[in-house]
Write a structure and sequence with these properties.
With about 170 residues, the chain is α+β, with helices and mostly antiparallel strands. It has a single domain, classed as Gcn5-related N-acetyltransferase (GNAT) (Aminopeptidase), CATH 3.40.630. Helices cover about 40% and strands about 35% of the residues. Strands 1-2-3-4-5-7-6 form a 7-stranded mixed sheet, sandwiched between helices. A hairpin with a 2-residue loop joins strand 6 and strand 7. The radius of gyration is 16 Å and the shape is globular.
């Protein structure tokens, strides 16, 4: 059973930040190097950074599988789209359909918006394939300077949430 817990209390923010390090450091170190991933975690997923993003409208969810915390995601509603900022699952929980349940929850949070979009490292092949299987398409690419000499080289992927037929009838 997959459930979701909103993150906003200090304890859940701390849990989220620790989980981010647990998942991302081993996963991204071979891809972009430990120095860059630690820098990015400090920049985007420190307790202060999470608190600030919550104030800016971001919503975080811890993901539980049979009451065990196994992942997290973050979204931020925009004018007519939902930005999927974070989407991570512990390695031992992958391949169990949890990612699909997470994406269903993301789409539920985007109910009424036209689409959900995300950025993903161009070298992150398995998630790119998973996103495509979940209905996302590559619509663009972007290089983002995040400081300290680091660049994020990403694809922008998008999934429609409202069908064209439904949109034409509005």
């Amino acid at each position: 059973m997959v459930t979701f817990q909103s993150v906003f209390l200090p304890k859940t923010i701390s849990t989220l930040c620790n989980l981010a390090r647990e998942i991302q450091i081993p996963y991204f170190t071979p891809m972009i190097g430990k120095e860059q991933i630690v820098y990015m975690l400090d920049l985007f997923l420190s307790e202060a950074a999470v608190k600030k993003s919550l104030e800016q409208g971001y919503q975080y969810r811890l993901v539980k599988y049979h009451d065990e915390i196994c992942g997290y995601f973050a979204v931020c509603p925009e004018k007519d789209k939902l930005f999927l900022s974070k989407f991570y699952l512990k390695e031992e929980f992958r391949g169990k359909g949890i990612g699909r349940k997470m994406m269903e929850e993301v789409c539920r949070l985007g109910n009424g918006l036209q689409s959900v979009y995300l950025t993903v490292n161009k070298q992150n092949h398995a998630p790119i394939a998973a996103y495509k299987a979940l209905g996302f398409s590559v619509i663009d690419s972007v290089e983002t300077d995040i400081g300290n000499g680091y660049i994020m080289d990403d694809y922008i992927m998008e999934k429609p949430l409202i069908s064209r037929t439904l949109m034409e009838n509005v």
